[in-house]
Amino acid sequence: MTQSFQRIVSRHCLLLAVLAGSIAAWAAPADSPAAVRVPTVVFMTDFGTADDSVALCKGVMYSIAPELRIVDLSHQVTPFSILDGARFLYGASPYYPAGTVFVVVIDPGVDDTRKAVVVKSKRGQYFVLPDNGLTTMVQDRDGIESVREITNREWMIGAGISSTFHGRDIFSPVGAHLAKGQDWTQVGPEFAVDRLIRLNLTPAQVDDRGLRGEVLAEDGPFGNLVTNISQEDFMKLGYARGQTVPLILGGETIDLPFVQTFSDVALHRPLLYVNSRGNLGLAVNQGSFAAVYRIKVPIPVSIPRARH
Question: DSSP secondary structure string, the chain?
């Protein structure tokens, strides 16, 4: 074997080793140390994008950790809606690996009475946010390992902390310090998990008569309705796709076909389906269910058992 041929083989072996390592890291499970390759902050607010608020917060984070990757989850959360923020955290967090830092600023009560906290889930993710119920749904699914109050002023910015812009002065810098790899126990004192503020969410209930749940929100700009009814609970009622399902929505009965997807019904016709998050949804094919039926959420929904 010639030396030139040996060099070519060596280069190809090296390339294959690097490629294999990259694939292994990409495929690493969420709780694996190899799962996070770049310091990542997932950023969500109800600020909107009409002014410079989001850019200021990002500037703070980049000034602390220039190598940071910031993923915008949403900045169009319904203003002051802690429930929508909790829903989006619940829906998005499973798709990010352990070590990811979520910075959330949906804070209708910006004052000194609510705590600023870092919450570490049992999946190894960190949530930097006001203690106002935003972690309720994540807590119920993933569990909470520990909670710390943010008191370390060295992790904040400004000699005098703003009384109204904690997103810039507290949550953003703390999120950047955590993503950078600094010891999260330095953020402040630990306090009991059961002291976390929780939203008062009533789970869907199934009994001999049927199912009772709630329409929680509209799904973005399309006017689809999102319920707290899981596919598993709904299927206990005995319905199959293609059947008509009588829903009682806020006291009014509406008959809806249970189908796979929007195009299974005619244009502008209503339907019942299982959405991408695994919950029951109400929609109009290329229309707004909320507008057509004049629905204001939240609203109770009940469904009787199927008749055979």
Answer: --HHHHHHHHHHHHHHHHHHHHHHHHT--TTSGGG--S-EEEEEES--SSSSHHHHHHHHHHHH-TT-EEEEEES-PPTT-HHHHHHHHHHHGGGS-TT-EEEEE--TT-SSSSPEEEEEETTS-EEEEESSSTTHHHHHHH-EEEEEE---GGGS-SSS--SS-HIIIIIHHHHHHHHTT--GGGGS-B--GGGS----PPPPEE-SSEEEEEEEEEEGGGTEEEEEEEHHHHHTT---TTSEEEEEETTEEEEEEB-SSGGGS-TT-EEEEE-TTSEEEEEETTB-HHHHTT--SSEEEEEEPPP-
Q: How many residues does the chain have?
A: 308
User: What predicted TM-score, i.e. pTM, was given to this entire model?
Assistant: 0.80
Task: Say whether pLDDT at 20 is over 50.
Answer: no
What residues contact residue 109 under an 8 Å CB cut-off, 6+ apart? 130, 132
Which pLDDT score is estimated for 5? 44
